[in-house]
Specification:
Blueprint: H1 2-30, H2 39-58, H3 66-80, H4 84-106, H5 117-133, H6 137-149, H7 153-160
């Protein structure tokens, strides 16, 4: 009987904590309202803006140029990142690569048609970063992590392997 009570408590506690973790984690990809507007969609838009910046740069720089290669490599790293922590790191690296490419394009003599694109694309790229900074995922994840530090959740989490969520920093 005692075994059944302990097992039931652990299983129920794990289920509840796992559901809370999933609820907070899902905000990253589908947004707080479930409308698909979350950090992941902003990362996708930033990756698209980065690629479009590369398209403009390819008209003026050779394909083997370090700025182009770096922007493409960091964009690829972001697309391959799986965890929140990996995506955060890749996003930061992409930000540096796109800024370097943008700065180089601003110092070039671009055609009249192309001259408006670097600023517009960089603004679009930065808008994604601004939206990410206001996204509710970190608040939800931090709330979940705080729940894990309180009793009895801290004991249940330790016994059942429920881990805190990474913040997107």
């Amino acid at each position: 009987m005692i075994f059944m009570i302990i097992f039931g408590t652990l299983a129920g506690g794990r289920g509840s904590l796992a559901a809370l973790r999933e609820e907070a984690g899902i905000v990253f990809s589908v947004g707080a309202r479930g409308d698909g507007i979350g950090i992941q969609s902003d990362l996708n838009e930033r990756a698209a803006a980065a690629y479009n910046m590369v398209v403009i740069a390819r008209k003026y720089l050779p394909e083997e140029n370090a700025l182009i290669r770096n922007a493409l490599a960091e964009r690829e790293a972001l697309s391959k990142a799986v965890s929140v922590k990996e995506k955060s790191r890749a996003n930061k690296a992409l930000s540096v690569a796109v800024k370097d490419l943008y700065d180089a394009l601003c110092n070039m003599a671009l055609s009249d048609v192309d001259s408006k694109y670097p600023q517009a694309l960089y603004t679009e790229f930065q808008s994604g970063a601004d939206r990410i900074s206001h996204d509710p995922y970190n608040v939800k994840a931090a709330g979940f992590n705080k729940t894990l530090t309180a009793f009895p959740a801290s004991v249940l989490a330790a016994l059942t392997g429920i881990k805190p969520l990474d913040l997107f920093e």
